[in-house]
Amino acid sequence: MDHQAESGRIQQLLDEIRDLSPGPAWERVEELMKRLLALYGEGLSRLLTLARAGGDFDVQATRDELVSSLLLLHGLHPAPARERVLRALDELKPFLDARGARAELIAVEGEVARVRFAGVEALQPALRRAVEDAAPELQRVEIEGAAEALVPLRISP
Q1: What letter would DSSP give residue 153?
Q2: Coil, helix or strand at residue 141
Q3: Is residue 155 included in any domain, yes or no?
Q4: Angle between helices 3-20 and 23-53 (to 10 degrees)
Q5: Which residues are within 8 A (CB) of 103 and not within 5 positions of it... i.e. 6 or more apart?
Q6: Per-residue confidence (pLDDT) for residue 35, from 0 to 100
Q7: Mean pLDDT in the chain?
Q8: pLDDT (tens digit per residue) in 59-70
Q9: Mean pLDDT throughout 91-113?
Q10: Shared-domain flag, residues 95 and 44
């Protein structure tokens, strides 16, 4: 990638947008750009701090939420999707346990995560969201056995 050419093209696009946009719209574009650059700047700063600290860089980078999310966004995350999904399910375990439910990863195949779930159906959105947040590059989360209840029903006489 020719960084100078890219920089020039970005400036050209911004100039064109400024010329085409009414004042309030352009102010929002400017604010958006400033916020994006500040976010990336903070991410770079944290990366430098991690690199200078020594130790296992991959582990440290995955523990930093901002760094981890930027690495994910650009397909550079050092931990594979399977590992991240397993970690997310482990973090979700106390929540599920408290509600008499359980979830286990069956497989991550291509762009699909398959999860076995036992518990009330109302917990599915939280489970799905945890997997999607952990591995946003996956296109689908398949939940098997979602309606299986772990808590026996009480039958009144």
Answers
A1: P
A2: strand
A3: no
A4: 150
A5: 89, 92, 93, 96, 115, 116, 117, 118, 119, 127
A6: 96
A7: 89
A8: 898 888 899 889
A9: 95
A10: no
Phi/psi for 143 (5° steps) reads: -110, 120
> Do 10 and 22 contact (CB within 8 A), yes or no?
no
Supply the range of the domain harboring residue 120. Answer: 81-144
Residue 149 has pLDDT above 50, yes or no: no
Q: Which tens digits make up the pLDDT trace of 20-37? A: 988 899 999 999 999 999
> Cβ–Cβ contacts within 10 Å for residue 129, how many?
13
pLDDT value for 45: 96
**What are the E-state strand segments in the chain?**
102-109, 112-118, 140-144
Helices 81-97, 124-134: crossing angle, 10 deg rounding = 150
Is the whole-model pTM more than 0.85?
no
The CB density around residue 92, as the number of other CB atoms within 10 Å, is 20
Residue whose tokens read 């398949």: 142
- Domain-located, residue 26: yes
CATH code of 123's domain: 3.30.300.130
Distances (CA, A) of 119 to 26, 83, 102: 49, 23, 7
Give the pLDDT of residue 146. 53
Residue 7 buriedness (CB in 10 A; 0-12 / 13-18 / 19+): exposed
